[in-house]
Design a protein that fits this description.
The complex is a heterodimer of chains A (257) and B (735).
Chain A: H1 3-13, H2 18-53, E1 54-57, H3 65-71, H4 94-101, H5 109-119, H6 141-147, H7 152-156, E2 168-171, H8 178-181, H9 198-207, H10 220-232
Antiparallel strand pairs in A: 1-2
Helix pairs in contact in A: 4-5, 9-10
Chain B: H1 5-20, H2 24-37, E1 50-56, E2 65-71, E3 74-80, H3 93-96, H4 98-103, E4 112-114, E5 123-125, H5 128-144, E6 151-155, H6 160-173, E7 178-180, H7 184-196, E8 202-204, E9 211-217, H8 226-238, E10 242-246, H9 252-256, E11 259-261, H10 268-281, H11 295-307, H12 310-317, H13 321-333, E12 337-344, H14 352-364, E13 374-376, H15 392-398, H16 417-423, E14 431-435, H17 439-442, H18 446-455, E15 458-463, H19 468-471, E16 475-478, E17 487-490, E18 499-503, H20 516-527, H21 529-533, H22 540-548, H23 551-558, E19 560-562, H24 585-588, E20 605-610, H25 624-627, E21 635-636, E22 639-644, H26 646-652, E23 659-664, E24 667-675, E25 683-687, E26 728-734
Parallel strand pairs in B: 6-7, 6-14, 9-10, 9-12, 10-11, 14-15, 15-16, 20-25, 22-24
Antiparallel strand pairs in B: 1-2, 2-3, 4-5, 4-16, 8-13, 17-18, 18-19, 20-26, 21-22, 23-24, 23-26
The chains are: A mainly alpha (257), B alpha/beta (735).
């Protein structure tokens, strides 16, 4: 038996030897550092990362939806209307405001900024749009509001009763609002308006069985949307195969420009 | 506790495991994918209300109807106007690229006064008031010296109210020198006029023709009104009609034709008369329109029999006799035959003899004034304005004749401009006003143009763009582009009915620019006296509305006016000749084709500049949308290619892509060789509309390729007095 082998035997036979303690110390250090790494990354991932990812921006001035909603007859559509060609106007232009705001109304600082900086100088207000989707997305308000009879609240929440404009959190990578991904960095949502990602569109279409059969759909947008839903939730509908030989689905370009 | 490599690795592994339990990797992946699908540097039009403005394109003489798509105030697309009588929804690549001209960096943004040497592109921005004061001062100085004829004006468009305002201004001021560029349309008009007694622009009924015989006309190269001609060509193919292309080079038109006849270049008139000879000798011609009692007919017949029998024509054209005879029979027997000429895009007037020969061919087969044929379309020239009352200074000066030697009512002779200025005959030129034209780049024989330029003491360029002429001017006055102004387009090139298109502003002026009509009115007012008295309008828009009279309402409503009751002259079989029938006397007169410049010994090849739909014409530099479509066998990097037949290249010892020197009697250039089976061995060709020399803002095609005008030179047609050059003798040497 060589010297090395006898040493090995001794070590194996005695768990309380100094070498054994040293090994336990190393294992403890390894576990400690593993936990430290784990904890640090969890802190970075859940707390630091969201703070770094989004910059905070203020709107040009605060807007009070509640006051305006009280004074109009047609709810949201009084200002956020459809044009004759069916396209949605989105945030109204200055022309819609000057009727009342030619002069300063009330004594708020925001009203003063609006009238003096924008109305009198005939500059459009550079609003930061919380609901703005990336340019590659095509979304038709007409299909959802006019044909689908959807309520604004379903996607936009109770913005109509807000009394001031929230801070606009801008994603530093995409340049889009945090509202698209949702406030929860984990992507959890409680309400239908908490997120505006493609999954949310698809989920709503699947849950509500919008246009159950392709043949029932008259407009091509909804018809093709069904196929997107089918792609994401393959078990939702089994009665239709798309035109693509490879995927048996139809075009992505209905919603993705 | 010892921190070692093992600790570090476990920290990293713990970190990785922790990270996987956070949203970070999934969120970053999502964000990066959104970012990469929407590159922030890719321009995206702002959202907003979409509107459409119906207007008229002025980028070529076609005058197509366009529908400009706007998002809010931003022009985002130009489409052909659906249902328009000229182009019915069609549009050419240049028309599509219009928004780039509106928003491009090559716009002149404010009046500019030269501060460095001419052509150095050093400018001081000045106010419109100062700029107009300066021009008025120079104009007043000439009139004070009793030399208003020392002013010449070159304009890009010889039609419409702006042209008439300019003509009126110059007449009241006292100079006869208003010069616009003549084109193949002028030569065709003269030729047809000599047969029918009715002169004016010619309309070609390509839509209804069943057999088109084209003598080099680049029907798919931008000839006439491209959007309309392309549609007509497609319709002809659909209906089983035929296109025969006679051309020395396999152009796009030749490639798409049913038959391509690569004849000896310059022998087109011979071939046309050769075909006529067969038609006459075999009595295949339509007798009802021809004045066969006239001496002209006998002389014509005798000339055909003597000089243009198939054997002789075969020798001159290089075509086999049997091909000529068969072609003549096929053409004469076709249901609705039509022969057309005007090489390439038809920018150069060309030989009158050739146009006459082609017109006579049409006359023989009865295509003049008949559906599927051609006829004269009298232009709307009467403005209804009162005669100009000139003062003594102007009256005296107007009698001194034009520097280009053109007589009243005859087409302008812009090709004589440079020699006249250099020789200072009949009098020295003291001031040049260029209105929406680019003669510094676009006139043939660039060296002479440069020399002439140096002799002109004061040059003003009125232009929307910083083109070569503007760069070499003393003062640049920025104009609204066609997308920012009102204007009338009187006539569409090659269209078969009298037509007016209304140009309407689609966008607010993007620069501190003015309407050319308003610049003229302001100058007239500033000059005062009889010049100011000649103009009753405060602004151009008022003048336009009043001038168009009862047509204004129609134009406002539908964007164009067409004479619905127009009857083609000759459709009733009556022409304005002595007998009322077609008169062949002019064709029978000795009209020799024009010889090319250069000795055959020193310059064994013939150089032909060719046109392409992918490169815009003279006054407009190709915008990026167009420039990017140019093939790399035409332009590669900064070098032009010369097309050479492989046999010729082998003799010269040059291969594909090799650099060579292309020399003509007027200049030389280094080019690269492109071997092309589609060109005759004795001919070489280069693309026109390259070789812009712009610097500064004007950069898209600047320094790219060779300007064909530096290699060619005008050759005057002895009968028409117009530039008849279609090429020049050349040689190619290895370098």
């Amino acid at each position: 038996m060589s010297t090395d082998e006898s040493k090995a035997h001794e070590v194996a036979g005695s768990s309380h030897s100094p070498e054994s303690e040293a090994k336990n110390g190393v294992a403890g250090t390894v576990i400690l550092f593993f936990i430290l790494g784990l904890a640090a990354s969890l802190v970075v991932g859940w707390i630091v990362f969201p703070k770094l990812l989004y910059s905070q921006k203020n709107q040009p001035f605060s807007f009070n939806h509640a006051i305006h909603l009280d004074q109009v007859d047609d709810g949201c559509a009084s200002c956020h209307s459809f044009r004759d060609d069916g396209t949605f106007t989105g945030i109204p232009k200055l022309d819609s405001c000057v009727g009342c705001h030619e002069d300063v109304q009330g004594d708020t600082e925001d009203e003063k900024i609006f009238v003096e900086q924008y109305v009198q100088k005939q500059r459009e207000v550079p609003w930061l749009v919380y609901a703005k989707q990336p340019p590659c997305v095509f979304f038709s308000h007409a299909a959802h509001v006019k044909m689908g009879k959807m309520d604004c609240v379903t996607c936009h929440g109770h913005i109509g009763t807000s009394t001031h404009s929230r801070v606009y959190e801008q994603n530093r990578i995409t340049g889009l609002s945090r509202d698209i991904w949702g406030k929860s960095i984990a992507g959890f949502k409680e309400n239908s308006w908490d997120r505006m990602k493609m999954d949310d569109c698809a989920q709503c279409h699947a849950v509500n069985q919008v246009g159950v059969r392709r043949g029932d759909l008259k407009d091509p947008v909804s018809s093709h949307f069904l196929e997107t839903v089918q792609m994401l939730f393959p078990t939702s509908y089994n009665d239709y195969k798309g035109t693509s030989v490879q995927t048996e689905k139809d075009g992505c370009f209905v919603c993705h420009k | 506790m010892k921190i070692d490599r093992r600790s570090f690795l476990s920290f990293v592994i713990g970190g990785a495991a922790g990270t996987a339990l956070t949203p970070l990797p999934w969120k970053l992946t999502d964000d990066l994918s959104i970012w990469s699908q929407n590159w922030p540097w890719t321009p995206v039009p702002e959202g907003g209300e979409v509107t459409y403005v119906n207007s008229t394109c002025t980028l070529c003489p076609g005058g197509c109807g366009i529908t400009v798509r706007k998002v809010e105030e931003r022009v985002v697309k130009i489409e052909g106007m659906a249902g328009h009588p000229v182009n019915d929804g069609g549009i050419c690549p240049l028309g599509l690229a219009g928004p780039q001209l509106l928003y491009g960096p090559y716009r002149v943004r404010t009046p500019l006064k030269r501060v460095g040497q001419r052509g150095q592109h050093q400018w001081a921005p000045i106010s419109w008031e100062a700029a107009l004061d300066e021009v008025t001062g120079k104009l007043t100085e000439l009139r004070t010296k009793n030399e208003p004829q020392g002013l010449a004006c070159i304009t890009g468009d010889g039609r419409g109210t702006v042209y008439h305002l300019l003509a009126r201004f110059l007449t009241a001021y006292g100079t006869p020198n208003l010069i616009s560029a003549a084109s193949a349309a002028d030569t065709q008009g003269q030729a047809l006029g000599r047969l029918t007694g009715i002169e004016g622009p010619v309309g070609h009924d390509l839509e209804n023709s069943t057999y088109v015989l084209s003598f080099g006309a680049g029907l798919l190269e931008g000839w006439g009104t491209p959007a309309r001609v392309f549609k007509a060509n497609s319709a002809r193919v659909d209906h089983g009609g035929k296109l025969i292309q006679v051309e020395a080079r396999l152009s796009n038109t030749a490639a798409k034709a049913d038959k391509w006849l690569p004849i000896t270049p310059g022998s087109e008139a011979d071939l046309a008369l050769g075909l006529a000879a067969v038609i006459v000798s075999e009595s295949l011609y339509k007798t009802d329109l021809i004045d066969d009692q006239n001496n002209g007919w006998d002389a014509f017949k005798a000339m055909l029999a003597e000089t243009y029998n198939p054997e002789k024509v075969s020798g001159r054209t290089g075509l086999d006799k049997s091909i000529i005879v068969a072609l003549a029979r096929e053409f004469a027997k076709a249901e609705k035959p039509l022969a057309v000429c005007g090489r390439g895009r038809g920018q150069t007037p060309g030989s009158l003899a050739e146009a006459l020969a082609v017109a006579s061919l049409n006359a023989l087969v009865g295509s003049i004034g008949r559906a599927g044929g051609l006829w004269t379309v009298a232009p709307e020239t009467d403005t209804g304005w009162p005669e100009v009352e000139t003062d003594a200074v102007a009256t005296t000066a107007m009698a001194k004749g034009r520097i280009d030697g053109a007589a009243a009512q005859s087409p302008d002779r812009l090709h004589r401009f440079a020699p006249a200025v250099i020789e200072a005959k009949p009098y020295p030129l003291q001031m040049l006003l260029v209105v929406e034209a680019n003669p510094y780049y676009g006139l043939a024989d660039s060296q002479s143009v440069k020399t002439a330029w140096e002799k002109i003491p004061y040059i003003v360029s009125m232009s929307s763009f910083m083109d070569e002429t503007a760069q070499n001017a003393d003062l640049v006055l920025p104009l609204h582009t066609y997308l920012e102004r009102y204007e009338d387009v009187a006539g569409s090139a090659g269209f078969t009915r009298p037509y007016i298109g209304l140009v309407r502003p689609a966008a607010k002026p993007q620069c501190d620019s003015l309407h050319p009509g308003d610049v003229i009115l302001k100058l007239a007012k500033a000059l005062g006296d009889s010049v100011a008295a000649a103009f009753a309008w405060d602004d151009y828009d008022t003048c336009l509305e009043e001038t168009l009279g009862d047509k204004w309402q129609v134009l406002k409503e539908q964007g164009y006016w067409v004479d619905e009751n127009f009857q083609p002259p000759g459709s009733d079989g009556a022409f304005k000749t002595a007998s009322g029938r077609l008169d062949f006397a002019a064709v029978a007169a000795k009209n020799e084709p024009v010889a090319l410049q250069g000795e055959e010994g020193a310059f064994p090849l013939v150089l032909i500049p060719y046109d392409s739909m992918r490169l815009a014409g003279n006054a407009i530099e190709s915008p990026p949308f167009l420039a990017k479509t140019v093939e790399n066998t035409v332009l590669k990097g900064h070098e032009s290619f010369v097309e050479i037949n492989p046999k010729t290249a082998q003799k010269l010892g040059v291969g594909e892509g090799a650099r060579a020197e292309l020399a003509t009697p007027r200049g030389k250039a280094v080019v690269r060789v492109h071997l092309y089976d589609g060109i005759r061995p004795d001919v070489v060709a280069i693309a026109r509309n390259l070789g812009h020399t712009g610097n500064g803002q004007y950069k898209f095609l600047a320094g790219k390729g060779v300007n064909a005008n530096t290699l060619i030179a005008p050759v005057e047609d002895p009968v028409s007095g117009l530039d008849a050059a279609w090429g020049i003798r050349a040689k190619i040497s290895r370098i």
